[in-house]
Each structure stands twice: as C-alpha cells, then as structure tokens.
Amino acid sequence: MSNNNALNDILVGATAAYNQHPQVATAAVKRTLTHSRPLTSSDIDSLTVLEFAAQDILLKYHAAMRQMETRLETLDQDLKLRQSRNPIHHIESRMKSVPSIFEKLGRYGKSQTLDSMERYIMDIAGLRVIVSYVQDVYDILHYLEHQDDLEVVTVKDYITNPKPNGYRSLHMIVKIPVYFLSGRQHVPVEIQIRTIAMDFWASLEHDLKYKAVRETSGLNVGEELKQCSNIIKEAEDRMQVLARALEQNAPADKHEVNAARQIDLSEQLR
Asked: Is 190 a catalytic residue?
C-alpha cells in the first residue's frame, strides 16, 4: 500500500468514526476511536509524511498570524497615543488543526489534499480582536483597508446584518506579505472583530447550543438567545452614546440616549 493510499484510509476512517458521534465527540471518545485499531508501519509512515508536509505549510500561516497580531498591537498603541485610550481590549489567535482542515475540505466537496488545503481554506490562521465599542470595530476595519500592503479578500458584516440566531461580529480575510528564504508570499489570515459584549454572547451561545438539542420545559432556547442578543445590542448602542459624549468632554445628552434606546426597541418589534 502506498503512503498516499494509507493516508487517505486514515483520513476517511477517522472522519467517518468522528461523524458517527457528532454530539458526544469528547476527548475520551476521540481517544477510544483512535485506540481501537493499532497503527501499522504503513500508517506511521503516512502520518510522518503528513506531519512533515503539513508543518511546512502551516509554518507560513503561523508566521502570517503572528505578523498580523503584531501589526494590530502596533495599531492599538498608535491609537492610544492619538486618542488616549486603547480601542483593542485583547487579541486571541488560533490555528486550525489538520483534521479540521481536511474535514472542511470534505464539506466543501473538495479533494482532501495539501494542495486543496492551501487553495480553498482561507481561515487556517485566525485572529479574534476584541474591542470596547461597536465604532471601534469599524475604525479598525477602516485602518486595515487603507494599509497598502494588505489585500482585503472578503468582509462579512454580521453586526449590521446579524445571523438568524443573533450572532454578531465582523469577519474579514486579509492577505499579509510574509518573507521567507524562497521569497515573499501573501498569506491569508481570518480576522474576527467584535465587542466584549458580542464575544460574551458568542461564548455562551457556543456552550449552550450543545446542551439545548430541543426545547426544554417549553423554553425555546434559540429564541431566548436571540432576544439576549437584541438586549446586548441595545446596551451597546447606549454605551456608545455615553462614550462619544465623554470623548467630546460633554455631558451625555439623555435625549440622545433615549433615542438610541427607542431605535433598538423599534427594531426588535419589526
């Protein structure tokens, strides 16, 4: 059996086993699935090839992610000097695992190869930028769009147009130049920009959706989460008004605060 065939068998078998347990794929279950069959010498050779090849590719995504993170930190410090505050609360980074990349290729109907991995998966490297206010999201988007060595590939605004479940965030894919011994490459990085409140909602929604597989005791969990998202939006709009007033060294206009509140209430009643 060739390395390629053995590698394909591992990928297909692991994906099928994983998909049989979508709701209970805990670490213990994953260990049981992998421990159920001893690895052959061919398996080990294939895994060695995969690890080496993937590391070679993932290196550049990791480098791009770190460069983008440093660029955002520099931008945050520059804005602090100009505005006397840090708009970025914190930044989180993550790299997709090789199994999740191949699983996504399968969902996309693409061949599960390392070539397809680079060609079709744009969010291998990702950053989550947590900011204080909604306006900070769009300010950072504006600054990134005007950096002449960055290529903005896509922008998806789930703040202006939230997902049906109430999810709100701004997603963008940018390509950043990274320099290697072989030369310069433009490597894609996904950036999610959201407020502290949006991140709070998203974190709890991610935790709760696995527990609420159906309505419980007459409670529509999905609808409750959506209403919570609306409440958070209203609070954010009012906090933005207060922040704007403070930045202008003027007392917050209660009529402007009430106007923001009424706009949110009218949107909820549509």
From this structure: yes
